[in-house]
Amino acid sequence: MAQTPEKSSVASTIHSLVDWAQARLNERASWDGLTVIVISLVVLVVSPLIVYAAWAGVLYGGWILWKKGTLKRLP
Predict the structure, then answer these.
(1) What is the pLDDT of residues 8-65, one digit of tens each?
(2) Residue 59 lies inside a defined structural domain of this protein
(3) Domain that includes residue 36, residue range
(4) Which of 13, 24, 57, 74 fits as disulfide partner to 30, beta carbons 3.0 to 4.6 Å?
(5) CA distance 9 to 6
(6) Please, which residues have CB within 8 angstroms of residue 11's CB and are 6 or more apart in sequence?
(7) What domain count does the chain have?
(8) Which DSSP string corresponds to the chain?
(9) Is the CB of residue 11 less than 8 Å from the CB of residue 18?
(10) What is this structure's pTM?
């Protein structure tokens, strides 16, 4: 069964993309670029959570100031 021109074109494009990606993996600049992209994505994903962590820290600090407690000395 022969491939249709559309299927062979898609397969050829995918093959070209895989070859390009494999060639880039051998270059240091590609690793540097990938590192910058990954770190940036992590910052973009985590940054909204930092606001909640800061509020939790403020509330915990307030709770520590508000509650009565004794200072325990170490032996």
Answers:
(1) 788 888 888 888 888 877 777 778 888 999 999 999 999 889 999 999 999 998 888 8
(2) yes
(3) 23-66
(4) 24
(5) 5
(6) 3
(7) 1
(8) -PPPHHHHHHHHHHHHHHHHHHHHTT-HHHHHHHHHHHHHHHHHHHHHHHHHHHHHHHHHHHHHHHS---PPPP-
(9) no
(10) 0.47
